[in-house]
What does this fold into?
Amino acid sequence: MKKIVLILFIGLLGFGLTAQETVAKIEFKAETVDYGAIEKGSDGIRIFEFTNTGNAPLIISKVSSSCGCTIPKKPEKPILPGKTGEIQVKYDTNRVGPIRKAITVISNADTPTKILKIKGEIKAPEGK
It folds into this structure.
């Protein structure tokens, strides 16, 4: 009886270790996008590129921004191990002034929450 319990325990321990080894990992090319100095009404779309460096499919469940002037778009399909993906961010460039916003990414990665940032400054068009 002791041998059976010992074998079951070792089997469950081995199964648990194997399950922990398969995990998605998200690695961003850059965690901050700098718009620089741009004119009012310029193209406000920027891309955060990332790679799944883990060994399980990466599922991004939610991407949100710190205000309504920034609209992020997440990938709809899982990102397979070794593959790349992107999160598109559209900032409303019809506002003059500095840009300092945060984008929160929630996924099944080993680090489930990542904070991305956008920064820059929107200038009024010359002569206006």
